[in-house]
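Quick one:
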Amino acid sequence: MDQNELKKLAGNTIRILAAEGVQKANSGHPGMPMGMADVAMILYSEFFKHNPNETKWVNRDRFVLSAGHGSMLLYSVLHVTGYDVTIDDLKSFRQWGSRTPGHPEYGHLPGVETTTGPLGQGFGNGVGMAIAAKMTAARFNDEKNELFGNNFIYGIVSDGDLMEGVSHESASIAGHLQLGNIIYFYDDNKITIEGNTSLTFSEDIAKRFEAYGWHVLNIDAYDYAGIRKAIVAGQQEKNKPTIIITKSHIGYGSPHKVDTAEVHGSPLGKDELIATKKNLGWNYEQEFYVPDEVKSMFTARKKEMIKCYDEWMERFSAWKKSNPEKADLFEKYITNWLPENLEDELLASAPKEPNATRSLSSKVIQKIAQIVPNFVGGSADLSPSTNTFMNGFDEIAPGKFSGRNFHFGIREHGMGSILNGIVLYGGYKAFGATFFVFSDYMRPPIRLAAIMEIAPVYVFTHDSIFVGEDGPTHEPIEHLAVLRAIPNTIVIRPTDGIETAMAWAFALRYKKGPVALILTRQKIDAVEKEKDFNPKDVLKGAYIVQKESGSKLDLVIAASGSELPVAAAAKKILENELSIRVVSIPSKEIFEKQDETYKNNIFPKDTPVVVIEAASMTGWGDLFRQKLLTIGMTRFGASAPYQTLAEKFGFTGASVVEKIKAWF
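Output:
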């Protein structure tokens, strides 16, 4: 069998495995995998640098299937290329307990670099990975050694990816940063669920990406020489990301469903699958079959890649011996090292005097930048307001990736997706900042970070109606409840320097999902704490700020952030009538993870509770089963000085007392 015939057989193997997996599940998207099978085959059999036996190799290439609905393409490729992906995995596509879910999920299978499916997210993740690769190269390469970051971020993106706004944001910043290590294939098959893309999509993609500053190429999805030539051209272009516009046929090989919307998201059907195999000259009766010639081809490629990996490891070992300080730093990066005394260091850095928590956070950030070497981040054009710029450290810019500070531009959605990519690449603790109300623009990547259990940090400032004069468009109401409702997501709303320092310590140590720090624009008055207060109790999510008088407890008043002084003021007014405890709850999610003994010690079961928060109170009833009064917002805010808003909306000690008396 000559090489061209072998390659064609390999492409058809991937194509048919994908179609069979969808058919067996009676659910899925066979069209894209069938259309792009040859592109994936050429990429993985000739260009993609990886080691299926060492799937976390730092300098491997990354492949992002942004068109995640075509997951059977990736699963089939991983199987034939020698990853720990079995035929049984392919047969159990979309089934309970399967490692092959409907859309690729990070952590389920080796070789799946990110969770994709919500269109456009993978596109942005790849941009983040490319930035991380550039940062790693800038930090650890020298004139003698280019061990790091000389890898590529490949991807397949679809019409849907390019329609979604997040791809515009991510493509824009990728072009601006001249990320020549990106090579994306655009599956230009002209079909979406509703029909031909001409229904809604008539822009000139080539001109659009040229305007972004991308390197634009055009190929046919079944022209092997053209695919190779385009990949080489993309690798040689060092100063522009590459998009390869790939003319393809959705459902390629299907005699009756090719180029139809029907094949996008539905199985071929048994008869059409048989007809497709005949049409492709598939002379094998077995289902889920990989011909011996194809196995041999990919086995040989795997051996080449293992040799490539072994050679790299030899160079890496020599580099470590020659560069012990850099090697130690590199180890800190890849292990996400943190100082043992992190909490104490951050507590010492936090100002003791009252201030806006965004300002307190800024002081803590400066300390983190000094003691945590892989801490990077930036703001969506708001660093003067979010107070997140790391003084004394350079900015990330075109051709300049050794810095720590990002300028994401006014691109919150893209920022969130890029942060996920940076974290997924490995080696970085990354944060992004914006006003809390604009977390709405970041919801998809926040949710995906939570699904993947990866831990970017979000610095959300201007956290409530007390934004004031900017008015209801900029005043978050429902946002705390929304973020708290996302599983695996930790929301922390501190009230002072101690809580802010501990919030950052928690965010740096947490590994099971994203952490959102919710910070104020305005100064928060100081609240006197008990003499036996332990700052590390903040890490339990809630703690007693002021104890009740005597042994009798009539009422607990709890609050977070800027409302804690309001709770203390109410206690002071009522202290001659009621025995009141004041509790700070900087994080509802952390508190809920504590044992029942601790929770009952803070909030005794039979004691009424008042919770104050200048936001929607949705969710608080899930935490407290005793008599509960919530004092929050039931409408949007208004434009006025924040002191006026506190009076008008009832966030003063006197107003809270009135409500307690009417209720208690």
